[in-house]
Amino acid sequence: MNALRGLSRPLITAGGFLALWWIFASVTAVPAYLLPGPWSVAQALWNQRDLLFWSALVTFGEVIAGLFIGTVLGALFGLMIVFSPLMQRWLMPLLLLSQAIPVFALAPLLVLWFGFGMASKIVMAVLVIFFPVTAAFADGLRRTDRGLLDLAATMNASPLSVLRHVRLPAALPAFGSGLRVAAAIAPIGAIIGEWVGSSAGLGYVMLNANARIETDVMLAALLVLSVMTIVLWVVVDRLLRRVLFWVPDTTASV
Amino acid sequence: MYTRADCASVIARRPVRAPMLRAADPGGEIALADTHILPQPSMTAPTPGAASSGIVISDLTLRFGARTIFDGLKLVVAPETFVVLLGTSGVGKSSLLKIVAGLARPTAGRVTTTDGGPLTGHVAYMGQTDLLYPWLTVAANVTVGARLRGNKPDPSRALHLLERVGLADRAQALPSELSGGMRQRAAIARTLYEDRPIVLMDEPFSALDTFTRARIQDLAAELLSGRTVLMITHDPLEACRLGDHLLVLSGTPATLGPPITVRGATPRAPDDPELLRTQGRLMTLLTPQAPR
């Protein structure tokens, strides 16, 4: 019952959006190569299901690998800049530089260096993902409740023990926030990589469809991509809620 | 200005004998002549499991830049004595307690046990909030000290202590599922689990409503008897209910006023005549310093 109510809102939004789209397309009679109706996109989705499925799998693989590596790297960087002033001085400018250069501008170089395969896309996804994780985690590690640290100090805890039992768990909610952002933006890196140079993946399908003015296929690929991103975000969110069971939740569930 | 600070206060639960004074004065810095000796008729004298130990604060000075918080503070708290420290906000009570707890460094001076050793490993600390780790169950919070030291926690002892504070049925609950009073009781159980001879408390019950606070005070008086307690509070009633001796910290730089001794077993009833008299005295002592 609750799940039904939770689902009804996105369904109504999607239905309304489809209706508006359909009305707009039929009333204005825009040529199909500019804006195909919902029905032709649905047909493209069905006719190209094999291609879309395998392409989505490639993109999904890139995103997951990027998310994993980016999260691990982000956590490591976060730990380093919080606990080593030296690391903070040397690493922080580099991290900022990596974000100052748009991934789009780096994409051709990365494709040149890492090839047309999945590697260059994973590198791009990692570049997009690690920074929010680092920033959020470092912030969480710095904001440990002074009282909890004081208590641990009077209990003769070693610094390593304080890190393991106090600072890390206390920083997990912030880390989770970073991970949620990362999950939502992870596909950006992968798709940009595929647009610049690839032989597989949803970005590759879209690029080809675009060149052949198969706008319905393009939109179908876009739809698959957004569904994939939303599912990824929801899964990450649910996992985090389970791990962070102790965080008082004052927000409504999605 | 320093007339009151110049004399150290020796606070004793039992009549003070010479050997004890010597033990409480390892450096020989505290002369008998300028020392407040406050013998108190011994009442109930339970001996705790841990060896009892008092606190010796010698010539403690704390400066933040040009600001002197206190200068040459002296205080001797005899073992198994409940001492309450009062004072207006910002006078330096918490800083003093943090130094005693080993959480902050003084500019000069030192704090030792009455045996002359460092306080490390002898103190348990209760802060202004319950300081329960939100990701641990109540039972795990009670044993958190063992976990932090890398020792094996003793769940049966934790459960026994939770029984004593009346929380045995909530052992597996998360702190966020408890009321403020319950959380504070869990914090007391955690403090007792540490089994340290000295307990430092920084306004531990200030977040509770009056009636819950009164109940927790009863519990604290019962469970902390036999330990040396140094407690900060803003609440004169709380001070008079729990303390064997009350000290007022006031002025800039802050100095300790002459100790006020409250007679009678703790926790004292809120309408105890001795308590009411002392409470009135405290109010007159503290009120003129309140910001207007």
Q: What this model shows, in words?
A:
The complex is a heterodimer of chains A (254) and B (292). With 254 residues, chain A is mainly alpha-helical. Chain A has a single domain, classed as Orthogonal Bundle (MetI-like fold). In chain A, α3 (49-83) crosses α9. Helices cover 83% and strands 0% of the residues of chain A. The model of chain A has no long low-confidence stretch (mean pLDDT 89). The longest helix of chain A has 38 residues, at 159-196. Chain B has 292 residues and is an alpha/beta fold. Chain B folds into two domains: 9-122 and 196-289, Rossmann fold, CATH 3.40.50.300; 132-195. In chain B, 29% of the residues lie in helices and 22% in strands. In chain B, the strands form two sheets. In chain B, strands 5, 7, 8, 9, 10, 11 and 12 form a seven-stranded mixed β-sheet that branches. In chain B, strands 2-1-4-3-6 form a five-stranded mixed β-sheet, with helices on one face. The longest helix of chain B has 15 residues, at 180-194. Chain B is globular. Chain B starts with 7 loop residues before the first strand and ends in a 6-residue tail after the last helix. The model of chain B is unreliable at 1-7, 14-41 and 43-49 (pLDDT under 50). Chains A and B meet through α7 and α8 of A and β7 and α4 of B.
Brief account:
Chain A is an all-alpha fold. Helix content of chain A is about 85%, strand content about 0%.
Features:
heterodimer; A: 254 residues; mainly alpha; MetI-like fold; globular; B: 292 residues; alpha/beta; Rossmann fold; 2 domains; seven-stranded mixed β-sheet; five-stranded mixed β-sheet; 9 helices; 29% helix; 22% strand; disordered N terminus
Topology:
The complex is a heterodimer of chains A (254) and B (292).
Chain A: H1 2-28, H2 38-47, H3 49-83, H4 85-100, H5 103-114, H6 118-142, H7 146-154, H8 159-196, H9 202-211, H10 215-243
Helix pairs in contact in A: 2-10, 3-4, 3-6, 3-8, 3-9, 5-6, 5-8, 6-8, 8-9, 8-10, 9-10
Chain B: E1 8-11, H1 18-23, E2 35-38, E3 55-64, E4 67-77, E5 82-86, H2 93-100, E6 108-113, E7 123-126, H3 138-142, H4 144-148, H5 155-164, H6 180-194, E8 198-202, H7 210-223, E9 228-232, H8 236-242, E10 245-250, E11 255-256, E12 260-261, H9 273-286
Helix pairs in contact in B: 5-6, 6-7, 8-9
